[in-house]
Sequence to fold (510 residues):
Amino acid sequence: MRNLTKLLFQRVVIVSLAILVQVGVILSGVLWLQEYEKWLNVTLSVLSWLAIFYIITTGRGNPSYKIAWIVLIFAFPVVGLTIYLLFAGNRSSRPVWRRLSGLRTQTQLALRQDKTVMQSLSQEDAAAHNLARYLHGSAGYPIYHNSDAVYFPSGEACFRRMLEELEQAEHYIFLEYFIIARGQMWDSILKILARKAAQGVDVRVLYDDFGCITRLPANYCKQLAELGIQARVFNPFVPIVSGRLNNRDHRKLLIVDGKRAFTGGINLADEYINKTSPHGHWKDCGILVRGEAAWSMTVMFLTMWDCLKAEEEELAAFRPLDFGKLAGCGYVQPFSDSPLDYEDVGATTFQSLIQSAHDHVWIMTPYLILDDKMTSALCIAAKTGVDVRIITPGTPDKWYVHAVTRANYEVLTEAGVRIFEYRPGFIHSKICMADDCRAVVGTVNMDFRSLYLHFEDAVYLYDDPSVAQVSADFRVTFPDCREITYQRCKHVHLYQRLGRSLLRIFAPLM
Fold:
């Protein structure tokens, strides 16, 4: 009884129930009007066609996302139209939208591309240069030749290095995470943060409220403030029906003095370092960027931090005077992706790597929920002889998402794409590597939410030694996987095939 009472009074339960009540009231109101059935049908028909016309004629937006909404509205006019009006689209409040939309302008002012670096890259590899030029032109982040990166094939290895780097902080520590959960991992980090804050180091923590709603109390910012740590919450989860819930801060950043910065799939919770095992062995990865490229990641954090409170700090004041001497011989380009600028940076980056590959494209992703463009890119690459391999979880964290992931297997394997499921447990790494010379490591899943609705970040690598580390991780991981063949995908029950077909239609809405 005590546990039940505790569960019922959790914030996530209260907020979710409040939202469900609001949706129920709206639907009940529509159903109550059925005594005016004739006029209600006319009104619903007009509204449905207006909504469909708007969906079709909107110049921007993913076609698969549009089709899913159209089918839902046609099949269930009352429910579909209501859900569309309440939850569709990328919506933030006008002030927040204006501030978040200005992130690119702030980024461009704080970062400058060294033209000699871009010219050098163009002479080495045209495809690598074209992608770097796109990331700079569309996202505003330059590519660097005086930086390097270290890849970590496990959460445990990355965590150990995080603690080492935090201990060396002299000026500031910035953290931005989708999930922070109290436990051995976070407690170890928090102990260092509190000590550094007491020594005068500027310590800031930014976390997504939806990602932490079951992990942290509502007043956690105040608890951190008592330790001398500044904290802010992205997009608070409030009991009001709103499409703003679509946009979450899925980025993972740990920055020390603007010279060293971590990102990757690892959140700050014990399952990411296998101190708990809710889904078998948790396979994740991280990457440490050192040198001037880490400044790009610092700007990512500061622009998000400032816009949440409508502040305008002088970013140049945080820029290190000396980034130190590094033996970097490759190219490193951190970048971020915003859902509010109508530029699908993460999706375009993946597609570019896939389409420009000559020998192989290897991918690790926890979720495989693809639109037609990504599916076509993968299938065409496989049909032209490129070795396309995708590693997905053997043990899912969400059964319904894993069902959608498996719904994509048949069309991919039929084209020659090789699918591998990680047998020891759950894959949470987000990696795309082409030809052992180019790779993207970051927070971007191959699903609709990551590619089109969430704030994300990643690091594009070309000819950097860390790409060899990524390649080695793939080669070690493949033997721990079970390959899912086309023949195996075909031999399923009819009801499973029908269910998977439906899931593929509505996958963009999940």
Summary: Residues 1-9 have pLDDT under 50 and may be disordered.
